[in-house]
Specification:
This protein has 350 residues and is α+β, with helices and mostly antiparallel strands. It contains 14 helices and nine strands. The protein folds into two domains: 213 residues, Orthogonal Bundle (Endonuclease III, domain 1); 125 residues, Nucleoside Triphosphate Pyrophosphohydrolase. 41% of the residues lie in helices and 13% in strands. The longest helix is centred in the first third of the chain and has 16 residues. The mean pLDDT is 94.
């Protein structure tokens, strides 16, 4: 097909030089794909390089402590990716003796690997004819063919997968997959694509019908829930603080945070003290609200309205094990907590 030849030709002249494009080692490809899920290349590249340096083989990653992996991942968000990454590394190292599955169907069985990632690894490493479909591919195909079917519906996903499979270069699936994704990232961009120099414009339905800004179609998700978090930043005897590990299957699983008091609405000092009394640990010398305006941390499914309350005390709260303030940087924490630690100067408070 002409679109197939055009995309591969464009890619040969415009592709970016990226480290994972210089290898067919499935460990490196898998690592890059997991990191780049829901992450732009400019943000993900430093993390990829850090992981390769710290864990040059799948065995190195498998032997790492989960907390070390989460710490290195800190700032990328969607921490389930890091936990799945570590779990899969351990599985491949112990059960598969370090050898990755060499087919789409085999790769799809790995934890944290879905259709897109399995297709990418299978085509890039093993030249399997498996079409990738990511946000860039959705956009290119929706615009070129003028498809109105929403991309985040079951019918839409099936339609775009079938279309991508129909136009993939069966002799060179790796370069085609790279080409269509790169084309969407650099040429057929979400906003203000440079259609005047686009090699596909003559046959592009969206260009002809002036519907570029309307495609692809995506149904709106439910409105994110609001949650109100009050973090208790203890300064104990001017030397220690308290952080705790999050458990369960919620956000930030296995990451560390300051003790949390969740409320139904944003609290002022009077309301906060009333809530704090329910914890039976209201013994402090000084209480200060770090941010008078809620810090809003937006996640895909919820928005966290957050306050940090600095509590100076000489009494260790019950059922808590304090740490030295100097050690706080060694723990893997969510970016919301990290940003606070970076801004809040513990040393000036002691």
């Amino acid at each position: 097909m002409q679109i197939t030849k055009t995309l591969i030709s464009w890619y040969s002249n415009n592709k970016r030089q990226l480290p994972w494009r210089n290898t067919k080692d499935p460990y490196y490809i898998w690592l890059s794909e997991i990191i780049l899920q829901q992450t732009q290349i400019k943000q993900g590249l430093p993390y990829y390089e850090a992981f390769i340096e710290q864990y040059p083989t799948v065995f190195d990653l498998a032997n790492a402590d989960e907390e070390a992996v989460l710490k290195l991942w800190q700032g990328l968000g969607y921490y389930s990716r890091a936990r799945n990454l570590h779990a899969t590394a351990k599985y491949i190292a112990s059960e598969l003796h370090g050898v990755f599955p060499n087919s789409y169907s085999g790769l799809l069985k790995l934890k944290g690997v879905g259709d897109y990632t399995a297709s990418a690894i299978a085509s890039f490493c093993f030249n399997e004819v498996a079409a990738v479909v990511d946000g860039n591919v959705y956009r290119v195909l929706a615009r070129f063919y003028g498809i109105q079917t929403p991309i985040n519906t079951t019918d839409g996903k099936k339609m775009f997968k079938a279309l991508a499979s129909d136009i993939i270069d069966s002799k060179n699936p790796a370069d085609f997959n790279q080409a269509i994704m790169e084309f969407g990232a650099l040429q057929c961009k979400p906003n203000n694509p440079n259609c005047s120099v686009c090699p596909l414009k003559e046959n592009c339905v969206a260009f002809r019908e002036n519907t570029i800004s309307l495609l692809p179609v995506k149904l709106k998700n439910n409105k994110p829930k609001k949650k109100y978090f009050n973090f208790l930043v203890y300064i104990i005897n001017e030397q220690q603080t308290i952080i705790e590990k999050r458990h369960g299957k919620g956000i930030w699983q296995n990451l560390y945070q300051f003790p949390l008091l969740e409320s139904k609405h944003s609290l002022d000092e009077v309301a906060f003290l009333k809530e704090l009394q329910t914890r039976e640990e209201l013994v402090f010398d000084d209480l200060t609200l770090f941010n008078s305006v809620d810090i809003v941390h937006k996640l895909s499914h919820q928005h966290l309205y957050t306050k940090f309350w600095v509590i100076k005390t000489s009494v260790i709260p019950k059922n808590n094990k304090p740490i030295a303030i100097s050690e706080i940087e060694t723990f893997a924490v969510p970016i919301l907590i990290k940003n606070f630690i970076d801004v809040f100067n513990f040393q000036s408070e002691i």
